[in-house]
Amino acid sequence: MFRILKKSLKTGVVTGRYPSAVQPAEQIAAGAREKADPFGRSLTIREVDTGSCNACEMEMNALTNSVYDIERFGIHVAASPRHADALVVTGPVTVNMERALKDVYKQTPDPKLVIALGDCAINCGLFKGSYAVTGPVERHIPVDVRIPGCPPRPAEILKVLSELRGGDDRQ
Amino acid sequence: MADAAAAAALLKKEFSEAVLAMASIHGISWLRIQTDQVPLLVHYLHAKPDVRGSLSLLWAVDHRPREARYEVLYLFTLAERQDWLLLSTELSDETRLFRSITPHIHAAQWYEREIRDMFGLIPQGHPDLRRLVRHEHWPKGTHPLKKDFAWDQVLGRQQGEYRFRHIEGEGVFEAPVGPIHAGIIEPGHFRFSVAGEPILQLEVRHFWKHRGVEKLFEQRTLIDAVPLAERVSGDTSVGHGLAYCQAVEMMMGMTVPRRGRYLRSLFLELERIHNHLGDVGAICNDTAYTLAHAHCGRMKERIMQLNDRLTGSRFLRGVLTVGGVTRGLAALQFDEIVAELDQIEKDFSELESIIFANASLADRLETTGVLTERTARDHVVTGVIGRASGIDRDIRRDRPFAAYDELPVNVALYQYGDVRARLRVRIDEIHESIRLIREIRRKIPAGPIAVEPSRVPNPGEWGLSAVEGWRGEILYYVMAGENGCIHRCKVRDPSFVNWPAIQWAVQGNIIPDFPLINKSFNLSYAGNDL
Fold this sequence. Notes:
- The structure holds two protein chains of two kinds.
- Chain A is of the alpha/beta class.
- Chain A is built from six helices and five strands.
- Chain A has one domain: 3-Layer(aba) Sandwich (Rossmann fold), CATH 3.40.50.
- Chain A has helices at 2-11, 30-36, 55-63, 98-107, 119-123, 154-164; strands at 43-49, 75-77, 86-90, 113-117, 145-147.
- The longest helix of chain B is centred in the middle third of the chain and has 28 residues, at 258-285.
- Chain B is built from 17 helices and 15 strands.
- Chain B is an alpha+beta fold.
- In chain B, helix 6 (237-252) runs antiparallel to helix 7 (258-285), helix 7 (258-285) packs antiparallel against helix 14 and helix 9 runs antiparallel to helix 14 (419-443).
């Protein structure tokens, strides 16, 4: 017990120890911000991987660590699409995941937002044209917000999510 | 008797009629064998006590349009000196049949189903010919790696249902899980058959993320395919990129300068550390021990930020190129790396003593998800999972690549094969990687970091390489086509051989322990599905 306390005291607060986002994010469309309005300052996210290489997932996971601590902004990750306000979709949509993606979209209650995370979700990236890929996310479901990058850094994701909630990504 | 040349000579002597040709290419012993004699020969190779070849890779090549034939290749690793022995057999365009070796060698099962799906070649005598990569809605006759299949064609859709293995009886229930899971992880389907709490059977149904990676390689040139290799499995960007580069370098006979090789080892170890740190935390987190998870997540983040400062990518993307590396590091940056790692090692050691003093954690980890050595050997399980089950294999030591011929590696080895053993292997490897990086700073020579490719390889030339990534052995086979393009690129992530093994490790465990066992394996879905 003493050892654990000592470790915690020694470590101190690490939240916020990350370089600011450098890549200028795409402007969030006014329509998207309007759609995010009903959720107020909080947002519950369901993450759906439709064929990414796993790097975008790792950066989403990094957002929940103590350095970025996304929960301090009222952003949660839900285990089911039925509890979600927003879907974060990563990866080009593979032929095998197409139906799963559409099902998840239907299962998410309205009003809802769809965020395409990473280059693959926005334009299929390096996998564009492949027989096994059926096109970017917006070919199958309407996309409201795009976060480019391969993969986007956690700070960049955080910036967009904060702007969407009408807040600042540092407080 | 252990080396491949001797084994090849022995096979030639014992099966003189079946062996059609024999050669040594890039130092790899190669035999061409009559198609109907393959099972007999590989069985001999596999079972003979002083040879004990284990199947490392099985793949096919469509040689059209240059020659109207298919080739099936078998790569064996011999027990003692880890020598490679390559066997191949040829099929004509009309027959499309080859003899399955799965009845003799269990590890061949997924490879042969993969060949059937991707090439339409049928392994005669295979006990399980259900589709593997192609899901049931793919139209009949779709075999993407055949040369007459257009890479960008649009697939139709048909009706169809995958037939799971069923266990029937009173009180037996099936629990479907996935493809979309509760956490932020990749898609895959798990089908459990349970009686009460214990799992009777698990069947893994994957390939949801199949993106056609091997076909996409064939649309690129040898030199510009590195970014694609880095995106096969995002968490193993350096591992896959390096295995690809080495295969091409072997084909072209290029020698990477020493400083370049040291830097490659450095990047590979950095990748190993950040992934292992994440895994140690995630294993603890799945027992609801979030304290360790929080600390590990913080340390992992430090390494990712270090990666970003060094190379401009948190995943170390873009540092590799055919012939060397793209980024040299200044002496000051080496000081920064080692200073950072010194702090992290101290920090992590303190956490380690907290983790292992926790009795309730030990209770969850010990005897959970045991993968026996026998099962591991039958599946030719590689990497962390193998070393936790007593398989003493590490490519860095056994077939040194990059700078490992000058950097001896102490291989972590545990016998019990449970979640705790897999956790221990990862912890030991974190310390070992930090030690190796200190060693790299001490030994790294000055000089150039890359060489330019000197020639365009002839069509049909090939290279084969193995890299010990953080998950295990990554294999690449690259064959050149016309004008410096790629004719065939076979990618083998360690997950492809480790996934079938997890089906055995969970038996008798309870479903709530499955996430923990799965985390302790931490296999890639993207690298498996390709």
